[in-house]
């Protein structure tokens, strides 16, 4: 694949864990457990393809409204998974980053997340950005509060405010390139409040495959589809 046809940043909405488990007569939790293993394998596959950024939607702001036992299970799974995978992240050059309202997470999960981010900060091969308690509306609201504070303290001028790109410096994703390709598994064709501003010119790819069934072949299918797209960014190509 030619360099310009390889995305630099892939975002994934990892959807379908619950249905995958229920179809097997198992509890939804089992699907989340399986989904964690698939994330680990997908991360390696993405890194092996020379793609330097992977952002995954692991838990949305709206997901807090799920039954309490499911929420607690996911939060424990995250803490355990991060603890278990951090040594591998370090070995494989993975830098962990988080986006979302991290202060909302249970103390144990937040502490493990901060510890894993600190331990992996030297990772040079790929950035794994995990969206937790994330929604685009929360992100924009957070950005506005910080912009207002910076205007009040005169760190920002009215000229700065007139720059449409200013918002990017205040989003959780600040400093990362915009996603080139966004994959959603699980059959739904919607963004569910994920990276709404960042995906302004992202290529979208939807697959019916449920997240626990996602594998390297599925990833390569999405990458091949991406390579066939003509990205114009509003211009006319010669
Ligand atoms: C995605 O899978 C994982 C989270 C939202 C935490 P779901 O749990 O939404 O699975 P389905 O969509 O109900 O099958
Ligand atoms: C989106 O999936 C959130 C994550 C994958 C973490 P949902 O299952 O929560 O989204 P909806 O409810 O189908 O829109
Ligand atoms: Mg879902």
Overview of the structural elements:
The chain contains 8 helices and 6 strands, in the order E-H-H-E-H-E-H-E-H-H-H-E-E-H. The protein has a single domain, classed as Undecaprenyl pyrophosphate synthetase (3-Layer(aba) Sandwich), CATH 3.40.1180.10. The protein is α/β, with parallel strands linked by helices and about 240 residues long. Helix 4 links the parallel strand 3 and strand 4. The two termini are about 20 Å apart. The mean pLDDT is about 95. The site of one 3-methylbut-3-enyl trihydrogen diphosphate has 11 residues, from strand 2.
Oligomer: single chain
CATH topology: Undecaprenyl pyrophosphate synthetase
Q: Nearest-angstrom radius of gyration?
A: 18 Å
Please indicate the percent range of residues in DSSP E strands (runs of 2 or more).
15-25%
Based on DSSP secondary structure assignment, what is the total number of beta strands? 6
Q: Any guess at the CATH architecture?
A: 3-Layer(aba) Sandwich
Residues in helix, %? 40-55%
Overall residue-averaged pLDDT value = 97
User: What is the top-level CATH class?
Assistant: Alpha Beta
How many domains is the backbone divided into?
Answer: 1
Structural class by sheet pairing and helices: alpha/beta
Gap from first CA to last CA:
22 Å
């Amino acid at each position: 694949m030619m360099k310009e046809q390889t995305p630099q940043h892939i975002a994934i909405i990892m959807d379908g864990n619950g249905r995958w488990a229920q179809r097997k007569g198992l509890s939804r939790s089992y699907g989340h457990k399986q989904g964690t293993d698939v994330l680990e394998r997908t991360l390696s596959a993405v890194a092996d393809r020379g793609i330097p950024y992977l952002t995954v939607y692991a838990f949305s702001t709206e997901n807090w409204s799920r039954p309490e036992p499911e929420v607690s299970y996911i939060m424990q799974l995250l803490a355990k998974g991060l603890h278990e995978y951090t040594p591998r992240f370090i070995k494989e050059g993975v830098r962990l980053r988080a986006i979302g309202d991290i202060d909302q997470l249970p103390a144990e999960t937040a502490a493990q997340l901060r510890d894993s981010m600190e331990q992996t900060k030297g990772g040079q091969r790929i950035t794994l950005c995990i969206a937790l308690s994330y929604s685009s509306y929360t992100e924009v609201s957070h950005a506005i509060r910080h912009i207002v504070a910076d205007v009040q303290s005169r760190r920002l001028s009215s000229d700065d405010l007139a720059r449409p790109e200013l918002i990017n410096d205040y989003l959780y994703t600040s400093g990362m390139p915009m996603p080139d390709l966004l994959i959603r598994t699980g059959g739904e064709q919607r963004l569910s409040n994920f990276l709404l501003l960042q995906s302004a010119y992202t290529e979208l790819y939807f697959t019916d495959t449920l997240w626990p069934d996602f594998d390297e072949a599925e990833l390569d299918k999405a990458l091949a589809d991406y390579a066939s797209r003509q990205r114009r960014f509003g211009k006319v190509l010669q």
